[in-house]
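Researcher: Please translate sequence to structure tokens.
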Amino acid sequence: MTVAQLKAELDSGANPILLDVREPDELDISRLDGVTLIPMGEIPDRYTELDPNSDIVLVCRSGSRSAKVMAFLDEMGFTRLRNLDGGMNAWATEIDPSLPVY
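Model: Translation complete:
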């Protein structure tokens, strides 16, 4: 999904789980409000913390790590997954320029 699509969805009152798969120090650089943080390396041990029936948008810096996590969760039976194309850098560039691109 594009950052514009996510912003429109959030502005409409939708409340998907925003699953950020970056490292904790990356959240100190930029973050979306209300994210759930599970770093990519912890996903295999922690994915059971997530509801496989929830609407989940995966977020990382540029969209690569989140795409890998999305593929893993898909294999684990999750069906309502979307990847944020371009990740936080696209969000910072297109939606919220107050956030740094890194």
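Researcher: Any highlights?
Model: The helical segments are 3-11, 24-27, 43-46, 64-75, 87-94.
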